[in-house]
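Re: weekly structure request thread

Next one in the queue (345 aa):
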Amino acid sequence: MSTSSARVPCTIVTGFLGAGKTTLIRHVLAHANGRRLAVIVNEFGDVGIDGEILKGCGDEACPQENIVELANGCLCCTVADDFVPALDTILARKPVVEHIVIETSGLALPKPLVQAFHWPAIKSRVTVDGVVAVVDGAALAEGRLAADLGALARQREADTALDHDDPIEEVFDDQIACADLVVLNKRDLLDPPGAEKAMAAIVRALPRAVKIVPVANGKVDPAALLGLGIGTEDDIANRRTRHDAELEHDHDDFESFVLPLPEISDPARLAARIAAAAADASVLRVKGFAAVAGKPMRLLVQAVGPRVSHHYDRAWAAGEERQGQLIVIGLRGLDRDGVARTLLG
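Done, posted below.
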């Protein structure tokens, strides 16, 4: 347990692509009960779509200037270059920030990030309140790690030689191994047998007794999420992961690209195009926002596998260009041109 009251607690939210990390954090911001929060968003890709989503919250608990986006790749690979300056920025804020929430990319390994809390530039100022792993319950119930990895799951089943070489499996296992709390998200999509199967998959991956909280739409009571007081950095050496013997890791199995999106007239038609693009076995996730003709609000769109959601999240600001954009995250070698043609129609 951490004993220094002077250090700002940090909650690290990790989890696979599309598990619902951003939705969970938005819920925490909206129910902060006066606690002054800051968020570090580690987006995988060329633009911070997740940062845009969070900034659309407009919650007084975490004003826009308290959201720092890192878009230079996986945070666990760029701790020195990105994380320390981001902390410096947040810790200089007035009024003083009381709690920091760090959203890692879906590909991040938590352990190197937690280990960085031992660095002299960090150790005296912050502590890891806890590591929260968000998992996609609906996907686990179907025997997959994420809703959009069916093709890869079938490949793994056919070739057992991939057991120790599949980075997606390794990322999932490492995130669970480091977790102080597991959030089983998308409970509303599970029937009782599915919920039992998802829970069993998490229990099998857990190396020790950790609380599992089933929720729908990321709605975790902030009181259950913040203030764990674990000081995870003091125990991180005991969190055994597959990458312990490696000095570094890479994510060469993944790539992403950003697609500018002209103003649209029909959200349903855009959703259909996104669903068609997401059906490509190499596409892991599509997310972003669009300008709809005649509408003053920005349309937020997200796709995980065959599930596409869209809603209006905020008004376009005065003078803001009504230009939409989509970020596509996929496996290395995906057909960018083909996916772009499908999305643009």
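The first strand starts at residue 8 and ends at 15. Residues 192-205 form the longest helix (14 residues).
Next request, please.
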